[in-house]
Amino acid sequence: MPLETPQSPAFQSFADLTPPIALTPLDGRYRPQVAPLVDHLSEAALNRARLVVETEWMIHLLDREAIPGLRTLTDEERALLRAIPAEFGADGIAEHAEIERETIHDVKAVEYYIKRRLSGTSLEPLAEIVHIYCTSEDINNLSYALMIRGAVHDVWLPALREVTAQITQIARDAAGVPMLSRTHGQPATPTTLGKELGVFSYRLGRQIRRIEADEILGKINGATGTYAAHAVSVPGTDWQEVSRTFVEHLGLTWNPLTTQIESHDWQAELYSDIARAGRILHNLATDVWTYISLGYFRQRLSAQGGTGSSTMPHKVNPIRFENAEANLEISGALLDVLAQTLVTTRLQRDLTDSTTQRNVGPAVGHSLLAIRNLQKGLAGLDVDADAMAADLEGNWEVLGEAVQSVMRTLGVQGVEGLDSPYERLKELTRGQRVDGAGMRAFIEGLGLPDAERERLLALTPATYVGYAPQLLAHLEG
């Protein structure tokens, strides 16, 4: 008899359980780390943003007297309208869903939701102004702009700044800790641990500034971007000016020339920048993982949390960095798809962008999850300067660069007997280890001037780090 599997009728189905079982790890296992994004990038957040845009549009039209013959609003009426999105919670979400089951249209359901709240108030006679002259995309593009701005600037960017500051602090603390470099994975000119981590901090700082400066565009210009309904209804109003001032009122940059949709180029630019920052973080995660494997960092189990290996009790696995790697790869792939897809629409409108944009949450969510894991991982590291010193002591051949560079300099200055410096050091060092005594003996036999001989004899792999500690002065903060 074959073994029963979870897909067989003998097993209980999870699909209809209440509360619903999460399908994705972001809404299940990892929800605590990404929960702040729910206020910005969930379906409920989308509908709340739509309520903001619809109610502010009504306020804007009446306050600017865009439609002649209509009165302006009182302070109480403006407060009533702004309370609609502010009070949108569990009951409102359920009510909107109920309306949408009838309309089979989420934006129309938002319009009807607002009109219900105007019923019986002083604004009931003006209820038809809700959504007037608007196509759904007028509301949606502005709503997504508000949502994405909030998610990036209020949640994701602060997290990126935090981990960058964390990297910067570790870099400064380790500014003078010498470390063997590994170019192509092979022993190379020494550096300091702080300088190498500072490279990541500097790279991330550039991306932060780019993302802070990214424009977030919006439009409200009708079914094909021509203001046709506006112009035929109220020809005397400067509808471009009304549109511009409304978009800017929302804190966005006005896009004056669109089809039915706002072209989403700004989204593609932003997602590419976020993905690039994620790839720099991915590079950090893989490098730190390698430094841990080399013994340059020790991990504190208390900071990593939980069991290390399920079978090897001595191990403290670098799970935070591995988790960050994987989630940054998922995030980067999603962000790439978003950036590639959103810049194209068929003629004046199709709906590919509608379903695509609903995946902004997972894309940013996986990135945020990775950042949180990097923060925890970095917080659990201790620098092992002794391990790095031992590694340097075992690789005196890396001074070959220093010796041949001094020989070259003296040679071009006319000092005799220092020909073929590169080739002589290559014969001494390539593919073989050289200890301190061997390197010093080679230097003694070169016939160098006293100053250069003494300088090279005093040099060790641990002191051959150039300006590495001073370079961290280029970091901000």
UniProtKB/TrEMBL annotation:
Give the EC class as a word: lyase
Q: In which pathway does it act?
A: Purine metabolism; AMP biosynthesis via de novo pathway; AMP from IMP: step 2/2; Purine metabolism; IMP biosynthesis via de novo pathway; 5-amino-1-(5-phospho-D-ribosyl)imidazole-4-carboxamide from 5-amino-1-(5-phospho-D-ribosyl)imidazole-4-carboxylate: step 2/2
Record EC number: 4.3.2.2
Domain annotation Fumarate lyase N-terminal: ranges: 28-324
Domain annotation Adenylosuccinate lyase PurB C-terminal: ranges: 346-465
Pfam families per record: ASL_C, Lyase_1
Record's keyword terms, sorted: Lyase, Purine biosynthesis
Enumerate the Gene3D superfamilies for this protein. Answer: Fumarase/aspartase (C-terminal domain), Fumarase/aspartase (Central domain), Fumarase/aspartase (N-terminal domain)
Its biological purpose: Catalyzes two reactions in de novo purine nucleotide biosynthesis. Catalyzes the breakdown of 5-aminoimidazole- (N-succinylocarboxamide) ribotide (SAICAR or 2-[5-amino-1-(5-phospho-beta-D-ribosyl)imidazole-4-carboxamido]succinate) to 5-aminoimidazole-4-carboxamide ribotide (AICAR or 5-amino-1-(5-phospho-beta-D-ribosyl)imidazole-4-carboxamide) and fumarate, and of adenylosuccinate (ADS or N(6)-(1,2-dicarboxyethyl)-AMP) to adenosine monophosphate (AMP) and fumarate.
Name assigned to this protein: Adenylosuccinate lyase
* Organism ancestry: Bacteria, Bacillati, Actinomycetota, Actinomycetes, Micrococcales
